[in-house]
Amino acid sequence: MGSYRGIEIAHWLQNVLVGIQYLALGVLVVVALIAVAGPNRPDTAIPIEASWFNPLGFFAEDGGGFAALTEGMLLMIFIYWGWDTILSLNEETKEREKTPGRAAVAATLILLATYLLTTVAAISYAGVGTDGIGLGNEDNAGDVFSAISEPVLGDWSWIVLVAVLVSAVASTQTTILPAARGTLAMGVYRALPTQFAKIHRKYKTPTVSTMFIGGVAIVIYVLLSLLGENAYGDVLLAIGLQIAFYYGLTAFACVWYFRKDIAQGGKDLWIKGILPMLGGLILLFAFVKSAIDMWSPDYGYLGGWTVPGTSVEIGSVFLLGIGSIVLGLPIMFLIARRQEQKPFFRGESLHHDTPVLAPE
Questions:
Q1: Which of 29, 31, 258, 349 lies 20 to 30 A from 268 at CA?
Q2: Distance CA 223, CA 252 (A)
Q3: How far apart are CA 82 and CA 115, in angstroms?
Q4: pLDDT tens, 80-111?
């Protein structure tokens, strides 16, 4: 409801939720690092090594590191998924010419510091063993924080649980807000029915778009719950694949859209050409390599699906990731056949010289 009632309410709520998360994680990280450096260090603790920060360490001799690198790239993309909320809300921010860019840089630095410190604290305190609180223990793979929070914080371990719960609530906003603004823009430029372009007179937020995205999220959650808890793990892996797909498309679209500006060279060449193209190629590599790995029924938690009449097995993560992308194609073709949407798909309602039509 905060996303529907106004951006100021959503902004205030998100600040509170994120603040609680960082406070809890900060306490966990500081206490864990102090324990590791102190005389009464836990038996599982291992010293921090410079090799942990060597990206070339992924390329192990047995080849397993290469697969870990691509899987890590998808995880990285998933982690940064909420980052595009900053840019999706640029027209609703103060000093929108500067604030979104500055916020994006600040968010990147904060995220890097947070993930780096949390990861180092967890590894150095719990170790990588396969027993007890070791990070190599399969019983801890689903929830590392639950495994290490009590040994680190004792009776105060509940604050980590609060952080995890708050994180789940905060992530719903970082999903609904940019998605609703995306469908709003699609409605404005007639890629979707114009109902998606409706703005609430009082709250100045997308109405149909917000309710639609929220409704779809509820339906998907219910369907996944019917498949069991393991379905959520596979969906998270599949989402990384989908994000790589549409981020990569966006990068290539940027190069094509600004092709005339790129031809002028200079800053335009780098900002609108070389860097987006490089990013698109990296994401294309991550998408293709990960899709190949996900084909295996051993990749993920739900297992695989056997093609009727054959012995071919397809992994559940591949089905969820690629299947949802393929499912979108007939939906797009059906929408493109509607008279209202034909101008968009003919390139008439959105092109390089189209004025900004999004409502203020």
A1: 349
A2: 34
A3: 14
A4: 666 667 667 766 677 777 777 777 778 778 88
Scan for tokens 């603004």, then name that residue.
181
Tokens of 106: 């600040």
Helix 230-257 and helix 316-336, axial crossing angle in degrees, nearest 10: 50
Judge residue 206's burial from the number of C-beta atoms within 10 Å of its C-beta, 0-12 exposed, 13-18 middle, 19 or more buried: buried
**Secondary-structure percent of the chain, ordered helix, strand, coil, rounded to 5:** 70, 0, 25
Residues 326 and 328: their CA atoms lie apart, in Å, by 5
What is the DSSP secondary-structure string of 5-31? H-HHHHHHHHHHHHHHHHHHHHHHHHH
The pLDDT assigned to 3 comes to: 62
pLDDT digits (tens, 9 = 90+) for 145-200: 888 888 888 888 888 888 888 877 777 777 787 888 888 888 888 899 989 988 88
Q: Is 93 helix (H, G, I), strand (E, B) or coil?
A: coil
Cross-strand pairs, 188: none
At 279, list the tokens.
């990013």
pTM value is: 0.74
Range picked from 188-197, 222-231, 343-352 for highest mean pLDDT? 188-197
Mean pLDDT over 267-273 rounds to 91
Q: What is the DSSP letter of 96?
A: T
Q: What percent of the chain has pLDDT over 90?
A: 13
Q: Measured between alpha carbons, how far is 236 from 97 in angstroms, rounded to an integer?
A: 33
Q: What is the largest CA-CA distance in the chain?
A: 74
* CA distances in angstroms from 297 to 67, 195, 202, 304, 316, listed in the order given: 16, 41, 50, 4, 7
**281 has a pLDDT exceeding 90:** yes
In degrees, rounded to 5, the angle at the alpha carbon of residue 118 between the alpha carbons of residues 117 and 123 is 100
* Encoded tokens for 248: 């990569």
End-to-end Cα spacing for the chain = 21
Please check whether residue 4 is in contact with residue 205, taking contact to mean a CB–CB distance below 8 angstroms.
Answer: yes
Residues 6+ apart with CB under 8 A from 152: 28, 31, 32, 35, 125
